[in-house]
Amino acid sequence: MRKILDQSYHLAGDEMFPEETDKASSHWQVGRKKHFPLWTQNVSRGRCLDQFASTHRVDGPWCFEIPVSGVFDLTDGERTMELCPGEIYLFDGTANGRIAAQRGQGECARWSVEMCGTLLPSLAGSLFRHYRHFHVGDAAHFLETAGELRGALLRRRHEEIPRIAGLSMRFLMELAEFVPLEIPPLLADAVHLFESNLGRPIRVGEVVDALGLSEYRLNELFREYFGVTMKRYFTELRLRRAEELLREGTLSVKEIAQQLGYGAPQFFTREFHRARGYSPREFRRLESSRN
Q1: Does the pLDDT of residue 235 top 50, yes or no?
Q2: Which of the residues 96, 196, 249, 284 has an alpha carbon 20 to 30 A from that of 21?
């Protein structure tokens, strides 16, 4: 028999959108509070009607959205796309995002898997690189793992903790199989140029000239494989490195700005705030309070 459903709400812009979800909450914060390397803190599944939406906030948990039926409109920072059954999308907390059922479909359904952990950013970077959109074909296997995670979270037993961590790792490792093994050589060269020049403001024109490819074509490749423009890719590389340095706590904001090639600290602060929703100093304070 179908489990009893009730109505919960997700804030989206200035409106409230109702979405029917399982009555039982699987939200268990023990992994975040104890700073586990990898932890699934919540698995939810729900049915929603036309245009019902939920948001993902900057610095929120990493969330894998898995549509089961219907088509969803998705926005993640600058990226806008449709998400369909057979696909999985990862919101990684680096930008504000939103997912909403498209108009005129009737009832839609999706699962959401929220993860956190001190190891998660580096692990995801190694497994997924900058991929956030995965074409998995049949998502049944991932839904099965998500269901196992949900059951363990609902039980909230201490002896389940290793199993939850193991299932979380299995979910990531199996999803990594859908990341293309190779990217085109010219795109790999462009990525190397960006990664090698985090300490200076390299211009897109320099990369284009070095590779002998048009800016239009190179941007097409970045959008195809990473979902963002070249400029946005380089900006995100610098911001992720800035976050690492801010967490380490050994350098001042001014020194971090200089190390990452910003002409003045205020330029760094402005770009960081625009992308993350708070200043570098606020980010450092938040990270310190968590630790």
Answers
A1: yes
A2: 96
Q: What is the CA radius of gyration of the chain?
A: 20
Concatenating the DSSP letter of every residue in 193-261 gives HHHTTTTTT--HHHHHHHHT--HHHHHHHHHHHHSS-HHHHHHHHHHHHHHHHHHH--S-HHHHHHHTT
> Considering the domain 185-290 in this protein, what is its CATH number?
1.10.10.60
Locate the DSSP E strands across 126-192: 133-135
Tokens 């070095």, residue located: 210
**Separation of alpha carbons 168 and 149, rounded Å:** 8
What are 46-87's pLDDT values in tens digits? Answer: 877 666 677 887 777 899 999 999 899 999 887 888 999 999
Distance of CA 271 to the CA centre of its chain: 19
Give the residue extent of every domain in the chain: 5-176, 185-290
* Coil, strand or helix at 19: strand
Q: Tell me the CATH number for domain 5-176.
A: 2.60.120.280
The predicted-structure confidence for 97-141, as pLDDT tens digits, reads as follows 889 888 877 778 999 999 988 888 878 877 887 788 999 998 999
